[in-house]
Amino acid sequence: MSAGTLTVLGCDGSFAGPGGAASGYLVQGASTTVWLDAGPGTFARLQEVCSPGTIDAVVLTHEHPDHWTDVESFAVWARMQRRTEPFLVLAPPGLRERSYFGGDRSLRWVELQSSLEVEVKDLRCRFSATDHGPPTLAVAFERVGSRPGEAILAYSADTGPDWTPAELGDPIGTLLCEATYTEAYEGRFKHLSGRQAGALAREAGVAELVVTHRWPTIGAEDLVSEAERAFGRPVRQAAPGMVLGW
After folding, report:
1. Spatial distance between the Cα atoms of 35 and 55, rounded to a whole number of angstroms
2. In the sheet that 57-59 helps form, which strands lie side by side, from edge to edge?
3. How are strands ordered across the β-sheet holding 208-212?
4. Percentage of the chain surpassing pLDDT 90?
């Protein structure tokens, strides 16, 4: 049974290309809406999909600007609504201090740690530290009350190869996994190539792999091709407006 949808708001890696947006996704369950990462350009895209007032929580995976700075625009919007209840923002250590609105009453910040589980209405979020640099948390989503063995939705956030999606639980139905560049760049940065993303997904027994966070200067076909060779099955490249069921 499908628990909900994931809508891609932006998926460019490290910086947004022409007409693009950085990392940001909308995860929706039966009665829950979570904004997952808030990179530049994603708040504008979010408003094309839903009212910001319907957001139940914002999940920010780490402090690199391409993953969170649109929460500043969201905070300005929230202040103008004169809500009595602040919006929940879940973020790893250190990120709140980087925000201009870290102490604003429109946002309620909760600090995340690896292995923590948080319930947001009908969705359970589980976190795992990745291999990136600053504290970075991958996240899995499952429906509260789901039966054992029901597939989960997993998001790698940013990571190098010394991490496994298996830390997020089993079975993973859909893995949204960063694949920043092709294998020629392996070892230069704490990111994954298409080949590495495919290999990690195969080893973790993932059912469906969707790659994201591609540098705008890297060809999508080349990246997906090497991911498919390593994964052993077709792989999808994230694109703004893409909607996935999970």
Report:
1. 7
2. 107-111, 87-91, 57-59, 33-38, 24-28, 5-10, 243-245
3. 117-120, 123-129, 137-143, 152-155, 172-178, 208-212, 236-237
4. 95
